Structures are given as structure tokens and as C-alpha cells.
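protien #1 (seq + structre)
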Amino acid sequence: MGPGLCDAPAGLVEGMSTDDITPSDAQVQAAAQGRATHPGEPHAGGTAGRLNWLRAGVLGANDGIVSVAGLVVGVAGATSSRGPIFTAGLAGLVAGAVSMALGEYVSVSSQRDSERAEIAQEKRELAATPEAELTELTALYEARGLSAATARTVAVELTARGALAAHLDAELHIDPDDIPSPVQAAAASALSFTSGALLPLLAILLPPAAARVPVT
């Protein structure tokens, strides 16, 4: 549940009025839509997707810089002609971008399939033993610091609104609308690798022959 009223000092909540801790209708609606509920602390959805893009981008750019730099510096040590250096750098760029994209696609596809399998399993459990699942949900909220009665009330109300969504959030920590896309991850990885690889490729092609390796 994270930092909140359950983690606050006892006197903090006691000193608050009902108006202080009762959200407005606009805040409730914003929270339901994944928008910011107050300035400075956005609660937007899509976190997994954004982190997926960021991870793939950072890894791709880093790999592009290091691998292509090593390749073109090696070729430049054997010849001062720009033609072989460019050919080797371009080949490394294309091969690396394809390799990174395929690897990222397979990796994220495996993650997506695992999450979908967990969702399917949870659906079967809810259909077969709804009472046991309600008890489990109650225990999860009680473990987070709610009293037994409050935990039961929360579990019952959330189950009435959407049992699967409640269990995915509390038990599996999965947002079915925020499952990473392997295509997006592959594209981000390929583009970032290409961007990173262009830096050493340009750095070794543009300067005079004597300065190519030091500049790169």
C-alpha cells in the first residue's frame, strides 16, 4: 500500500479533519483514470511500458557505442581507407540493431506470456473457489495493516467491483492494461542501438586519418 495513513504518526491522522482526508470527486475521478490527483505527484498509468522503453533504450545505446567503436577502431588500425572502415561500421550497426531488437522481442514476449498465464490462472481460481479467493484477498489487505473488519470490507467491495482486477493488483501486482509490448521494446532497442552506433562511426570517419582512433 506504500506510505500513507497507516504509516503516519498516530497524532497526524487524529489531528486531521474529515475534510482534510476526504478526496474530492475530481480527485477520485482522476485517480480512476490514472491521472494526477494533486500537483507534483502524478499517478499516471503505463509505468511498465515507460520503464520497458527506457531499459531497452539505455542498453541499446550503450551496446551500440561500445561494440561499433571497438569494431571500427580495429579496422582503422589495419587500414586508413575510409571505405573498409565505413563498410565494417555499417555492417556492425545493422547486425547489432537486428540482434538487439530480436533479443528484446524474445525477452519481453516471455515476460508478457508469463503475466498472461498468471492472469489466466487467477481467472480459473476465481471461477472455481471464489470464497477462498475472497478470504485470500482479505488476508492480503490485513497484512498491509488494515484491521480484520476493514480488510474484509475492502475485499468485499473490491470484489463486487471487479474480483479479477482486485486480485491482480493486490496479489500479483499486474495491471492488465500495462503489460509491456515486445514490439515497442524491440523498436526502442533497435533505434537506440543505431543512434549509439552512429557516434563512433561518424567520429572515426570525419577526422583526418591520424586523429581517427584518438577521437573515437
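ok now protien #2
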Amino acid sequence: MMVLFHIACVITAFFAMEFVAWFAHKYIMHGIGWSVHRDHHQPHEGPLQRNDLFIIIFAIPSWLFMQFGVMGGNDWRLYVGIGIAIYGAAYFYVHEVIIHNRFHARGKITNRYLLALVRAHGNHHKRREREDGECFGMLVVPLKYFRQGKAESVKLGEPAAG
């Protein structure tokens, strides 16, 4: 029975992180953290951005949950930390590899969900400043982006803007 509880902790933490990511993106990255996040919305040179600091910042809660969970005898906190870490890995893959093609490792996208995801994020990046943004989440995509251009696809090397 504890195995089911631990699995539920991982799954719940994973899905709760979508709201946390939306909130952090809208109110922290586009708020008091804009000086760090700004370069992600501007053309830039090189493989790293100041915005990459958020990876470290957002890894801290996962690490703390896991550490205290292990110290507590592998209790629920360990599994919440694992769920947060899995979300972080999914976020990194979706955002950096699929959406921004940062490592030039993505092929042609024809999957309807992934196309909608790229369109929504591209719409978010149309705004170069922090005000008037939309689509702050990562994995939940508004329905209007599924309805746009069903036949189009995004090719290797194309930017996320849509």
C-alpha cells in the first residue's frame, strides 16, 4: 500500500509543478526576476544565458525534499522531491530541446500536441519585454493553439516563434 502512496506522491508533485512553473514564470521571472530572465526573450550569442540560473534555483526544492525525505526514513518527501525532479527533467527537455532546439537535436515536429506547445511558447516570445505576456505554463497548452494550422510542421533549426 505504501508503494501506491509513494507513486501518488510522485505523480501529484509532477502535476502540481505545472502550476508552480506557471506562477514562477509569470510572477517571478516576469516580475522581480526579470533581470535574470530577460536574456531568454532577447537574441543572444553563446550556449548559456543568465536565465539558466533558474535551473539551479528550481532544483533546490527538489533536492531539499529528497534530502529530508531520506533523512526521515524515505518518507513522502523523498517521493515529492522525485516528482519535482522528473518535472524539471521534462521541462528541460520540452523547453530546451523541443521548443527552442537549443542543442540542434530535434527533427521535424508533426505531433499535434508538440506543435501546439511550440506555437504557444512562440506566442509568449513575441513579446520582448515582461509586460502583456501570455502562455506562461509549459505542458498545459490552451486549446486555441491546437486549432491553428493543423497541417503545418516545425523543422529542425526553426525558432519557436509562431
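Residues 18 and 138 are 7 Å apart (CA to CA).
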